[in-house]
Design brief:
The chain contains 20 helices and 27 strands. The strands form five sheets. A nine-stranded mixed sheet has the order 2-1-11-10-12-13-14-15-16, with helices on both faces. An eight-stranded mixed sheet has the order 7-6-5-3-4-8-9-19, with helices on both faces. Strands 17, 18, 20, 21 and 22 form a five-stranded antiparallel sheet that branches. The termini are far apart.
Length: about 600
């Protein structure tokens, strides 16, 4: 596994296992999964690299990718690196203005776009993009434009023809790339200001891949992963396909987050990477079935859940499982847990979760049904962080430091990490200096280390609420509790310098309509249902139960329910489903103010 760069892993795996399937994807809507072997993948990467060099790409030039996950994304990312360039990922949900900012800030020379909708975003601001030379369209028809726009297939054909002549130049460029070479720019989500370009080197990538392999130690012949999260973010890219290419583990691409459940049944993965919301929704759906099911089924599910939790708690605490409990679990597994795992493809062994802490209750429940969730914590700026492992998992924590990473808590409670720190912010040395001091990355997160060395995250440093009464409150903990309320998708607790706490809630449309149908309510208008007295009464009852277990100053006195889902398109949440608190507070200021009248 000790490769100098990810490009070395590419070349070695393509040479040693050319006929091995490495990627499975669906090329067209409604189509079937198609297999791509190493020989086919590496040839495509080499052809595109040759085309880029032939079109004038210089070492260090930036190439942007504006698309959702697809085979062409991976080919482009790897080809840019092979040609000595730097890939720049843009979220496919970004607005035209957000895309223009990143394209201009990075000085991108080329931009690869998914379709006509995405290329329209680029064309809208092309006049202000002095460095942009051409766009490349993955699919769809070229819009009428005086700008240089290539079709992806046409560019690949050009690369195949140019490759023999460009082969010596590609070899020369490859020889220049080492672990200190800049590999990719990953822009932050911009929750606290304009996005900043994080410079990630080949050393950063290989360091985290080696650390992942150190604690996973999986057999490539036994694994099959499903890539669900958008790879424009570094975490899904590292865990979703860099690790697969590095370790030679076949991966399949989900068509979208919404289609992931169906794709799981088709692919039957053994693992995947995700965010906690995936498990929260699974947990809520199962508990909804318990609450709404007949008495016998409800009784069976509650019994099985209790058996599974008791057994999992003992296993995770490295204690023996009594014979009777073991027998009860076999029965529970046959009657309940296996059916749940079948909905996930039937072969799922483990999953990696990051982006936010997973609640201890949900982590233990998922383990009880037979899926071990490993939690990872880190920043784009500090590529390595902490992780729970198969041998050492404590739900409610995000584990211990990965290999090569140091961890400590500052006097004010801020989490500090050192080791495998990024190269800095693109064109922002002053911001880099604010973040990295004496080699330590100041994460902006607040937490503590328990007696056994596990890290517990309590909140974002800048998100801490100080009420008018002087009470310091961690909103993230409360928001995690509120997201446990059926139908609630996103929760934001508000109350800084206010007399009491309030909450703004966004509902999951699909779950809300299903719940309404079960209650015999009309399901033709989500906006109307979200504001109905039935929904409000149900949420209030759940809120009362939550408040009963909180200190008085932590209780949510009032709440408001939005008549739509919060969205990335509106700039309200990030691609990893983090709340953009300041934007939401500003956008819904009148609604929040009304809760204090």
């Amino acid at each position: 596994m000790a490769f100098g760069t990810i490009l070395e892993a590419l070349a070695a795996n393509a040479k040693n296992t050319p006929q091995r399937t490495i990627i499975r994807h669906i090329a067209t809507s409604g189509g079937q999964y198609q297999d791509v072997n190493w020989a086919e993948l590496y040839e495509a990467i080499q052809n595109l690299a040759a085309a880029l060099v032939d079109q004038g790409l210089e070492p260090g030039d930036r190439v942007a990718i504006l698309s959702y996950n697809r085979l062409e994304w991976i080919i482009t990312d790897m080809a840019v690196m092979l040609a000595g360039g730097v890939s720049v990922a843009l979220y496919h949900t970004n607005t035209a203005e957000q895309c223009a900012y990143i394209l201009a800030d990075s000085g991108a020379r080329f931009v690869f776009v998914e379709d006509e909708e995405q290329v329209a975003k680029v064309l809208e601001h092309w006049d202000g993009l002095a460095d942009l030379k051409a766009a490349v369209l993955y699919q769809g028809q070229h819009p009428a434009s005086e700008r240089t726009i290539f079709g992806f297939k046409a560019l690949m054909d050009m690369g195949a023809k140019a490759r023999p002549a460009q082969a010596p130049e590609l070899d020369r460029l490859l020889a220049l790339i080492d672990r200190d070479t800049l590999a990719t720019l990953v822009y932050t989500s911009g929750t606290t200001g304009p996005p900043k370009g994080c410079m990630i080197s080949h050393a950063n990538l290989c360091g985290v891949l080696e650390a992942i392999d150190d604690f996973l130690q999986v057999d490539p012949e036994a694994e099959q992963s499903l890539l669900i999260l958008p790879v424009s973010h570094l975490y899904p890219r590292v865990t979703g396909y860099y690790y697969n290419l590095y370790k030679n583990i076949p991966l399949a691409l989900a068509q979208s987050i919404d289609s992931a459940a169906e794709n799981m049944k088709q692919i039957r993965p053994t693992y995947f990477a995700c965010v906690p919301r995936v498990f929260e929704k699974l947990y809520d759906r199962i508990n909804g079935q318990i609450d709404q099911g007949p008495a016998l089924k409800k009784s069976l599910l509650n019994w099985a859940s209790g058996v599974g939790r008791r057994r999992s708690a003992l296993i995770l605490d490295h204690k023996p499982v009594p014979a009777l409990l073991g027998l009860q679990h076999k029965i529970a597994d046959a009657l309940v847990f296996k059916k749940i795992r079948d909905q996930l493809g039937g072969r799922l062994r483990f999953a990696v979760s990051a982006g936010a802490p997973l609640s201890a209750e949900i982590g233990l429940f998922i383990h009880a049904i037979g899926v071990h969730v490993l939690e990872y914590y880190g920043l784009t700026e500090c590529v390595g962080g902490t992780v729970t492992t198969f041998e050492h998992t404590r739900y409610g924590t995000v584990g211990r430091p990965m290999r090569g990473v140091e961890l400590k808590i500052a006097d004010d409670g801020e989490i500090l990490l050192r080791g495998n720190v990024f190269m800095g912010y693109w064109n922002m040395p002053e911001k880099t200096a604010e973040l990295i001091m004496d080699g330590w990355c100041h994460t902006g997160d607040v937490g503590r280390i328990d007696d056994d060395g596990y890290l517990v995250i309590t909140d974002r440093k800048k998100d801490l609420i100080i009420t008018a009464g002087g009470k310091n409150i961690s909103p993230q903990n409360l928001e995690n509790l509120l997201k446990r309320i059926p139908l609630v998708s996103v929760a934001m607790v508000h109350g800084d310098r206010r007399k009491y706490l309030t909450a703004l809630l966004s509902l999951d449309q699909a779950e809300t309509l299903a719940w309404a149908a079960a209650q015999g309510l009309a399901t033709d208008d989500f906006s109307r249902i979200s504001q109905s007295p039935e929904v409000r009464r149900m949420i209030q009852d759940q809120m009362d139960a939550i408040n009963a277990n909180l200190a008085r100053f932590e209780t949510i006195k009032k709440f408001a329910v939005l008549d739509r889902e919060l969205s990335q398109e509106e700039g309200e949440i990030t691609a990893t489903l983090k709340v953009k608190r300041r934007i939401i507070e500003q956008k819904f200021k009148d609604m929040l103010d009304s809760l204090y009248e």
